[in-house]
């Protein structure tokens, strides 16, 4: 992103520039690798995160079918909603991102061998690295679909606040997790989700970032 234009007052202003295709491709790979690394830390410590990733981890702990398969399948119903709300190009990026996260979470434990990890560190670092990965994706108009799209759709169609919808979903996931995880793991899950959302809140500021895909 370059500061090239000059306003009528003589001050530099930011010019909107589209990301190039190779930039989007690099961001897609790096962002999904970071998200997969964070989820790998969560899984190693047997804690959760927010949204469909957290639900997929919970179902994995309960069933043993594996996070990659569950995460991809649980997102399939949201692809049509993404197509309606985001358009074809953004939907294809989202589907590809979900597929890459599923693949990378399958192989990251083989690429990064972690025999033991302190759960507190897993919550903080996992939340931070997942947040950074999502930030990279967001800045290239790519997301991981799921509950966020539903929350925005409900807000626009019925006036329900998207933040409240997301909070209700996360509380439901944590309530279900109470039957599987001990209280300390639940507390660490809340901490990790807090770190993740803090990273996004502090850094995902569209008014400060003008690049677009």
Radius of gyration: 18 Å
What is the domain tally?
A: 1
Helix-strand makeup class: mainly alpha
Largest sheet: 2 strands, antiparallel
Q: Helix tally?
A: 9
What's the quick description here?
With 213 residues, this protein is mostly helical. The chain has nine helices and two strands. Helix 1 packs across helix 5, helix 6 packs parallel to helix 9 and helix 7 crosses helix 8.
Structure description:
This protein has one domain. Helix content is 69%, strand content 2%. It contains 9 helices and 2 strands; from the N terminus they run E-E-H-H-H-H-H-H-H-H-H.
Topology of this structure?
Elements: E1 5-6, E2 12-13, H1 21-45, H2 51-63, H3 67-75, H4 79-86, H5 88-111, H6 119-138, H7 147-158, H8 162-177, H9 183-203
Antiparallel strand pairs: 1-2
Helix pairs in contact: 1-5, 1-6, 2-3, 2-8, 3-5, 4-5, 6-9, 7-8
Descriptive key words:
213 residues, two-stranded antiparallel sheet, mainly alpha, disordered N terminus
